[in-house]
Design brief:
Shape: globular
Bound molecules: glutathione
Structural class: alpha+beta
Helix content: 55-70%
Radius of gyration: 17 Å
Order of helices and strands: EHEHEEHHHHHHHH
Largest sheet: 4 strands, mixed
Number of strands: 4
CATH architecture of the largest domain: Up-down Bundle
Number of helices: 10
Number of domains: 2
Strand content: 5-15%
Distance between the termini: 53 Å
């Protein structure tokens, strides 16, 4: 029997949602383990030698990072492919995936943690379907500390969030162009770049200050075809 695959995640993390969807698409069995933040910052380095999630463990094999994991999943279960076989298309998907991992993911982290620092009570909504069920008053109590800690880890601030918001339309244009040229956006065959980019779009849409920028965009439609909306909401005025 193959070893059980364990996915280590933090609830609400967009790259974790991307990897989880990849596992589902491939029909791979897995166990999800959600660290309650900020415990991940202590426990992930002990277990994986790195602080970030997603990470997977399969027997003695350990991997950290959404792109490394998705490449490995293509080896473990080749169909349906996350990285296309056609070399030209694969190159485009790899490029979009890389940009999503190294640039675009951080936009959502900078916005959400800056926003939650100003409106910590919103963390209650985002935690509603977490593995660790804490009563709402307990989440409300720890939310300011969690938000401030995460904002510090991500080096974000209200000023940085405002700058991120201004730069966002051009970044969404880039994703919509990848949909237009067929790099991503085939709902019947989501690839690694779909999961990487659209998981971030989905998280962005949970923030009221960002919604207007996303409305009617092809990337929002594509994200909504892959996932139901996120339960939480960052209220208007939290950013900006
Ligand atoms: N870009 C990397 C990093 C992911 C990343 O930064 N994940 C965040 C959650 S969305 C995290 O682990 N943050 C915790 C921390 O930095 O301590 C990936 O896709 O795996």
């Amino acid at each position: 029997m193959p070893p059980t695959l364990r996915l280590y995640a933090v609830h609400g993390s967009h790259p974790c949602a991307a990897v989880e969807r990849a596992l589902e698409l491939k029909g791979l069995e897995y166990r999800l383990l959600e660290w309650p933040p900020p415990l991940h910052a202590v426990l992930q380095p002990l277990l994986f030698g790195a602080r970030t999630v997603p990470a997977i463990k399969r027997g003695s094999e350990k991997l950290v990072g959404s792109r490394r994991i998705m490449h490995r999943l293509d080896e473990l279960a080749p169909e349906p492919r996350l990285y296309p076989e056609d070399p030209a298309l694969r190159q485009r998907v790899e490029q979009a995936d890389l940009w999503g991992d190294e640039q675009f993911q951080q936009v959502a982290r900078d916005l959400i943690w800056a926003g939650l620092t100003r409106r910590p009570a919103a963390l209650v909504g985002y935690s509603r379907d977490a593995q660790l069920k804490l009563p709402a008053p307990a989440v409300r109590l720890i939310a300011p500390i969690v938000a401030r800690g995460a904002a510090r880890l991500n080096r974000t601030s209200p000023a940085k969030a405002r700058a991120r918001l201004e730069a966002l339309p051009a970044q969404l244009d880039r994703i919509d162009a990848w949909i237009a040229d067929g790099t991503i956006g085939d709902p019947a065959h989501p690839n690694a770049a779909d999961l990487q980019l659209l998981s971030t779009v989905r998280l962005l849409y949970s923030m009221a200050d960002v919604r207007q920028i996303l409305e009617r965009r092809p990337c929002l439609v594509a994200a909504q075809a892959l996932w139901p909306p996120i339960l939480g909401e960052l209220p208007a005025g939290a950013i900006g």
